[in-house]
Amino acid sequence: MGLCDIQDIKAILGRHGFHFSKSLGQNFLTEQWVPDQIAASCGVDADSCALEVGPGMGCLTVALSERASQVVSVEIDRTLFPVLAETLADCPNTEVVEGDVLKTDLKALCEEKFPGKTVYACANLPYYITSPAIAALLDSGAFAGVTVMVQKEVAGRICAPVGTGDSSAFSIYIQYRAKAEYLFDVPRDCFVPQPKVDSAVIRLTPLPEPAVQVQDEKLFFEIVHAAFNQRRKTLINAMGSVFGKRLSKEQLTELVTGCGLDARVRGERLTLSNYAALTDAVSAALQKASDA
Ligand code: SAM
Prior knowledge:
The chain is α/β, with parallel strands linked by helices.
């Protein structure tokens, strides 16, 4: 039985009366090299464990089970459980738990299933939850690495060096707390049903400390969001929409240029260090304004 063989996939799913759900982002892999390469790249080994999101019919689960000491897969769709009972019958180190990854306490799940072990997260993510799922995996603090397949364009944006114009508020959020690596492309014809876009696999390795130090993390992300919510505006004008009641345009101009930035710069051109310096300057100015 080949879990990536299209004839076998159709036979198994047909036998269980399974129908693909578009709304659950169900596009299953049909090329064995893909789950093999994801499992080989995610960092898991015989001493560590894997937490998988969305096993589908289990091709990545099996590839992970061949390398990891233990694999737990979180699947939202109950109709896949009888399929997985069949396809994972020969993999005793795997377990499937029912759940929505966005509503699961991932840290508690890892502590319960893998006490004291190093855990790697791995997934061919459904497109409709790409950003919140990545955020949930990273924010849980439960993983030594997060290796996920996402839409190719999104992978490019997440890994784009901050300040190059391709970055986004989300890529800053990621690169603030993790090293982001673009691993390899996966063309759309590697899936059934075939999606309209190509995919790519990325690996996020959480940093021991945030990439830059800031006095006020909440303010840091407020500034980043202000800048990218209106990314066609200059940074000063975009910040004016959020901080305009507390800081005048002249003050904002002074703060931006005081960080060595051009007054007409857009937020997409700032590096993480630029954002950190600006955050500390804005923090001090807000403090001064509230003391006055
Ligand atoms: N891993 C399989 C593969 O590569 O062939 C399937 C990947 S498919 C893109 C996404 C999987 O995630 C499906 O099995 C789907 O049912 C599951 N899924 C969708 N939303 C989910 C959620 N919120 N939580 C957990 N699993 C979810």
